[in-house]
Amino acid sequence: MTVLNTLLEITIYSAALFGVIWLFRLLLKKHLSAAFLYMAWFLLIARLIMPVTITTGFSFFIMPSAQTAVQAQSADLTSLLEGLDNTVVPERDAQAQTNNVVQQSETLVKQAADAEAETYAIPAANVPLKITWKTALISLWLAGMAVMLIQMSVSAIRLKKRLKNAKSIPPEWQRIADDLKNEMGLRRSIRVVMIEGFPSPALSTGIKPVVILPEELLEKSSESVRFALLHEMTHIRRGDHIMSLLLLLLRAVYWFNPVVWLMAKYMRLDMETACDSSLVRPMSKQEKKRYAGTMLSMYAAQQVRYVLGMALGQTKKTAERRLRGVFMRSKSSRKAHAAALILAIVMLVTCFTTACQPTPEEPVIVGKNQEKMLEAAAQTPEKDEVVPPAEQVNALDTYSADISLADGKLTITANAPVFIPDMDGMPTIRVQAADFTQEQVDGMITALFEGQTIYETEWGPETKDEIMEQIVRCEQMKTTEEYSSEGDQEQMDERIAMLKRNYEKAPEKSEDIITESDGQLKQMEVKDQEYNHMAYYMGLNVTTNTEDYEQGESLMVQNNDDMTEAVFEIRKDDDGNVTGMSGRPLRRNAMMRYNNYAIGGWTNWGQHPPIAVNENTVIDDPAVMEKLKMTPAQAKAQVEALLNKAGIDYMQVCAMYLLDDENLGNYDGIVSPAENYAYRVCCCRTLDGVPCAYLRGYSSVGGMDESIKGNMDVSSLKYVGDWEYETFQIMLNDQGIISLSWSSPLNIQKTLVENSALLPFERIVKAFEQRIRDKYEPQAREEHVASIEFKVERVSLELQRIAEQDSLETGLLVPVWNFYGTEMEGFVDREQDDVHINYNGFNEPRPILSVNAIDASVIDNDIGY
């Protein structure tokens, strides 16, 4: 949360609290003691001191929660980016585009995202200072606070000088003061001084208060002096001198907030009244009258600033208020206590917490101050002074690290080569989720099926007999131990009920329709489990063998569908608790899948841990050499030949792995040794020679996982969505291409910045190492964790897709540093007195951490930014 957001939020809440407290006092003043009236202000003091608002599931004031705030962003980047290119959009223009959003979400906008961005974001080098309206407001606030603190300091210095020159009270009065101090249980040494012309008995504020008596007071009755000493020492016993100092500091911080000034004024009055009430509680009526008379005799004097005074204020109304305090009830009524408790609870929920905001009418994607990031990217020299990326980042050839934290349980090691594209500049580009074109499909059919006839199969609907077999199988599964839990039984019952509904609609007989394919994309339909229409898409599904599917080759193309809202069903138990969820999110992940089932397309290929190879790797394992004659260099050459034949000249090989068909027991519990070997070759898109990061997985939109934790209405999930990162991989061995997978192709829309300004590499390393510390050190210190080890094997400067505001269709390709490597976690098994190791090496080049090369913000690849 920004400073301005915090000040604005606290100002709004403090105004609400002041009004409620004042109304409470008016309605119940006859039932409240002086002490209770004073303590009521503590609720407002707590709100002014507390810099954050706690996120909960309920509040009377609906404010954006942390999760919603992470997903919100204060700018419409679509119009901003259209005119950016290599220039900076003026602040006033950007602000004009953001007013509507800022007004709705200013109070908590980008709370979690900004917290991380402020930790790691570092301004680009040589970026000129630019004064924005936010900077101006913060500067004005700081200047006002400085003036207030200076005034306080000057007054304190003046008072200190007067105290230095003050006279000590006569010994007989000092003995009376010491006796009163002992009677009240005050252990500290209390200095009592006299100052000629001082208007009233008073107590200085601060840690070591001084009791000040007017020299003229000693000429009056001894009872007047005793009352004055008793009053000021009661202040000390109650800690009022500390509270008075706190009020001065709050006025300095919130000098712009009239509520704070009013609160300080009335709280000081209530402080005096509460002090009087506490002091006179053990007195008789006659003694109370004499005390009141002593106090009234001082009300002609002028108030002294920055001290507590026995005669605070000059007005007749103030004098009457003090007198009422002397004779007020000593305890509040039970009715008042009950009302105060209810009010306090309501105010705590209302003004100290904020509820989750309902899902907006339009989908939003997580953002981390993209406006500033893009402005920083555009801060490059003139075109005739272009500085290549290698010179901008000033990186060493190797990143080395040997870091040990959490008593050695968390380690980060690296001796990793650093790769930087040999280009004139790293661009920032807008991209769009694309469909596979007919040209791309034709090229792939040519490369994969040359000389073969391909067929399309339109599968007929399931028959009654086929569905009945499923029903019987589900009923049998319900009786097994695997499905004995209440949740599993409920889920199985739901499936059986769905199958029975399908049975009623199913035909007795069904036939598949097989036709020779021309390779053209056709409209296809997405249906739910009950065969109800959900969406249409353009796709293709062909095979070379209609008689025996497992002996043929197949190609499936499924472009993006036309769904505009996610479809979800949340399951709840009888108590209303969420037990599960099923449905379909919005998705932008066009897919192309090829499998040659005759040579291993069905095989569960894997390797644990994966074995990374490159074109220069020599395979010398006899077990592998016996089964696989193809070298890594030959595998790479064959993949490049296929890409060339398919007309895909914008993909290049970025990683290779040696795999085998060892059954790891992931599905059937049976572990068998490897019989065959193959290569997995990963390819990434390149733009003018600059590689794009190869990331496998989805960037999620809308917080689906968080949403189902509460008992939320299904309609709130209608904009939940996924956009898969673009991946291209091929598996092959001596027998040929085993499989090919291409997901989420991109359309290049516009280059926004041709040569992005990049931060020095040392700043990026600092962000990487700090993020690992912050995220994993607390986890490593837990008792059940034996070790967490990160090994960085490669560091690459690449282009990577991040989310763009309010869109599941478009994103930005920005320069990113990816730290590739492995993670190993060891967990203590106390029952077996052993340590289990989880190895996260991945079967494709997935980074340990990604850091934005422009602003050093850490990118969460699971949410897209």
How many E-type strands? 35
Radius of gyration: 37 Å
Strand content range: 25-35%
Number of helices: 24
Termini separation comes to: 18 Å
Catalogue the unreliable spans: 57-130, 301-307, 355-367, 703-711
The class by helix and strand makeup works out as alpha+beta
| Overall pLDDT level | 76
Walk me through what this model shows.
The chain is of the alpha+beta class and 865 residues long. It is built from 24 helices and 35 strands. The strands form seven sheets. Strands 11, 12, 13, 14, 15, 19, 20, 21, 24, 25, 28 and 29 form a twelve-stranded antiparallel sheet that branches. Strands 8, 9, 10, 30, 31, 32, 33, 34 and 35 form a nine-stranded mixed sheet that branches. A hairpin with a 5-residue loop joins strand 34 (847-852) and strand 35. Helix 1 (3-28) runs antiparallel to helix 15, helix 11 (240-253) packs antiparallel against helix 12 and helix 12 packs across helix 14 (316-326). The two termini are 18 Å apart. 36% of the residues are buried. Mean pLDDT is 76; it is low at 57-130, 301-307, 355-367 and 703-711.
Notable traits:
twelve-stranded antiparallel β-sheet, 865 residues, single chain, 24 helices, alpha+beta, nine-stranded mixed β-sheet
Quick overview of this protein structure:
The protein has 865 residues and is α+β, with helices and mostly antiparallel strands. The protein is 37% helix and 25% strand.
